[in-house]
Amino acid sequence: MSDFLQIENLTAGYHDAIVLNNLSVSIERGQSLAILGRNGVGKTTLLETLMGNTTIKRGAIRWLGQDITRLRPAERARRGLGWVPQEREVFASLTVRENLEVIARGSHWTLERVYKLFPRLRERAGNYGNQLSGGEQQMLAIGRALMTNPQLLLLDEPMEGLAPIIVEELSEAVRHMCAEEGLTAIIVEQHPVLALSMSQHAIVLERGTVTYAGSSAELAADGERLNQLLGVTNRALAS
Ligand SMILES: Nc1ncnc2c1ncn2[C@@H]1O[C@H](COP(=O)(O)OP(=O)(O)OP(=O)(O)O)[C@@H](O)[C@H]1O
User: Fold this and answer.
1) Residue 44: domain span
2) Half-sphere exposure (CA, 13 Å, Cβ side) for 140?
3) How far is the CA of 94 from the centre of ligand 1 (A)?
4) What are the record keywords, sorted (predicted)?
5) 195 C-alpha vs ligand 1 centroid, how far in Å?
């Protein structure tokens, strides 16, 4: 059993509305997880629940051997959970450099290390948050999360709306972070093949419960199973 992250029989949602239903999953350090599923099945809600932004009715979340089920979001972040929300949330009135510096914690992740991962951010260091392309904003959002020194990075549809070349750059950066920098990621992503290529394990959600849990590589190699689970066509799989 993993000491890294364990979600046990979790039932959670927003006030009285239940979205996740008796969901269990566990993650080992260095074994990134893709969360797949059709629209509205609870993928974002699972990330929000890990960060402490939902109502937990039953079950438990254990992180590094400790029960964090009732901890506030800021305390979870302090303990090493890093969050890159879908909305990116960079400060429009700060420069790229200021966006990164304002959140720095004197950690493994320095300005220099983030610039090395995302050379485009170095080139745009003096640009304000609202003077960036969508891809650059996403890189900055990931850079900001890294500056908090996370052990686990939660990425919510990081490639959404981005050009193929930027998707390639970003997915390579995520793979590098995990392979070389000791990070583990949970990735919610609409493109199954991409998500599976960035992870070792995957779960598929259907109405707030797990319908597949297993190896990403095995699922990626089984188009028929993917189609069954996600209802995606072969053409969508290839894109
Ligand atoms: N803040 C909220 N308050 C109440 N209900 C919400 C809230 N956010 C999401 N929901 C509901 O929870 C359910 C799951 O939504 P969620 O965003 O987790 O799904 P998802 O799998 O991430 O979908 P998508 O792929 O479309 O982003 C949906 O029925 C949604 O309407």
Assistant:
1) 1-80+185-239
2) 32
3) 30
4) Amino-acid transport, ATP-binding, Cell membrane, Membrane, Nucleotide-binding, Transport
5) 19
